[in-house]
Amino acid sequence: MISFEGFVVEDNAPIYLQIPLFIKRGVIAGTICDGDELPSRRTLSALLGVNPNTVQKAYKLLEDEGLIVSHSGSKSYMHLRQGKREEIKNELLKQDAESLVLRLKQMGVSREQLIFLIEEIWQRGDNI
Amino acid sequence: MISFEGFVVEDNAPIYLQIPLFIKRGVIAGTICDGDELPSRRTLSALLGVNPNTVQKAYKLLEDEGLIVSHSGSKSYMHLRQGKREEIKNELLKQDAESLVLRLKQMGVSREQLIFLIEEIWQRGDNI
Amino acid sequence: MISFEGFVVEDNAPIYLQIPLFIKRGVIAGTICDGDELPSRRTLSALLGVNPNTVQKAYKLLEDEGLIVSHSGSKSYMHLRQGKREEIKNELLKQDAESLVLRLKQMGVSREQLIFLIEEIWQRGDNI
Amino acid sequence: MISFEGFVVEDNAPIYLQIPLFIKRGVIAGTICDGDELPSRRTLSALLGVNPNTVQKAYKLLEDEGLIVSHSGSKSYMHLRQGKREEIKNELLKQDAESLVLRLKQMGVSREQLIFLIEEIWQRGDNI
DNA sequence: GTGGTCTAGACCACG
DNA sequence: GTGGTCTAGACCACT
């Protein structure tokens, strides 16, 4: 069963978009694999403290993208075809990193400063 | 006159929040200074391809924060009191870096991979 | 359900201010009471031929004043605490009458003419 | 020269509409007559504390309606053709009184209460 | 279905 | 020309 540990709905982006992103990141990380079972809509909505409709909308998106399949009954499963993971990785990872670099360059941060900053945050994050 | 070169409205966050962020980053970088003239609502809205109202809302936020001054019928100007820049820097820079480090960790990227990735993107960015 | 029978949007004042006035007058008249259900934003907007947003803004004003309560996803209801009605009455009735007496005096209408005029209109109104 | 004694810009209606109304009420009252000179745009704007453009817009409205004429030079004069006054009176006075009566009836005020209220306000107004 | 928010367009008042 | 406000339409999250 896929875990939503660490998911927070605080971002300014719509929740129904944040859920697919969270799952895709798990796929990239390898913690979410083909065949994994997703929490039911009701379970997840309770877990995240959001409305079941919102979860439904998110699952629908993933389904349309072919990333999950909903068998008869209500259970949903990850469906990751060959190469899908790499595809997602290219789509997401670089995009995130690029946006970070772009923003920080815009702030006048030098490459050295950025790397120092990341090291610092990384350390801190480990202690949480 | 403040330049909005490099601003793109692609993020899922509301545009009226992205504009203040862009400006704050310029302040941090030192490319936007106290007394600088802001583009008019219409000019900027045309530039970004959004509605004048959206820009108005963004400027209003900055005004409420005391970062810009604007009088009806007259242009708007940056207003950065002593120490304001540092304040913004602390507020923004870490926040941006943190959120992205968090995401990337979630994707299972190691510190080394991340730094490598950043180096790569940085190089590429230089050639654009 | 509160009725908006007789409401017309013809005045030069903003609609989002006229709606609260209309409701307050109903409260004064006693036709709108504590606990009464308000028409939904969409229903009322369709009824008045205005945008749902305009109604939203009007309801927001009333909510800020503590006259209605509304929870997302649920209906909105009047909330009239003890003495609130008298408060509104004092605020509104005299204000309305005063502004109109002022205008009519400005038109050089004598007290007798005004009373005659009112009698006349009153009669006519009864036959409508 | 027409006096703007008693004019206040506090109403929610646009100022450029309030000015013509004020003048029309003076015409009805008989205090403003054919041939009377209007204050210049600049004078009036200073007097009312509004922008010259706004006064210009108001005068333009009156001109389009044929109520004022602007001779060469900048002076403007009232131009009230035969029967014009009655026309305005019918347009304005009843409309104002009607709206008053309508509102008060909506508040559940009886005819007797209304007349009593008017007497009261009238008295008070005399002492101001 | 409900309320709430974001973006859009037109208009008002000001310099 | 400038900033500010009112109305409009579409979308999001919730019952």
Descriptive notes:
4 copies of one chain form a homotetramer. With 128 residues, the first copy, chain A, is mostly helical. Chain A is 59% helix and 6% strand. Chain A has 5 helices and 3 strands. Chain A has helices at 15-29, 41-48, 52-64, 84-106, 111-126; strands at residues 37-38, 68-70, 76-78. Chain A has a 3-stranded antiparallel beta sheet. In chain A, a hairpin with a 5-residue loop joins strand 2 (68-70) and strand 3. In chain A, helix 1 crosses helix 3 and helix 2 packs across helix 3. The longest helix of chain A has 23 residues, at 84-106. Chains in contact: A-B, C-D. Chains A and B meet through helix 1, helix 4 and helix 5 of A and helix 1, helix 4 and helix 5 of B. Chain B binds a DNA duplex (15 and 15 nucleotides) through residues 14-16, 40-42, 50-54, 56-57, 59-60, 70-76.
Give the helices and strands, then pairings:
The structure is a homotetramer of 128-residue chains.
Chain A: H1 15-29, E1 37-38, H2 41-48, H3 52-64, E2 68-70, E3 76-78, H4 84-106, H5 111-126
Antiparallel strand pairs in A: 1-3, 2-3
Helix pairs in contact in A: 1-3, 1-4, 2-3
The structure holds a DNA duplex (15 and 15 nucleotides).
Greatest interface and its participating residue counts:
A-B, 40 and 39 residues
Describe the largest sheet of chain A.
Answer: 3 strands, antiparallel
Q: What is the H/E order of chain A?
A: HEHHEEHH
Q: What is the count of DSSP helices of chain A, taking H or I runs of 4+ residues?
A: 5
Percentage of residues in helical conformation of chain A:
55-70%
- Terminal CA distance of chain A: 24 Å
What structural class should be given to the helix and strand makeup of chain A? mainly alpha
Number of strands of chain A: 3
C-alpha geometry of chain A: elongated
Low-confidence stretches of chain A: none
What is the strand content of chain A? 5-15%
Mean model confidence by pLDDT of chain A: 88
What quaternary form is this? Answer: homotetramer
Q: Strands of the biggest beta sheet of chain A: in what spatial order? A: 1-3-2
Radius of gyration of chain A, Cα only, in angstroms?
Answer: 17 Å
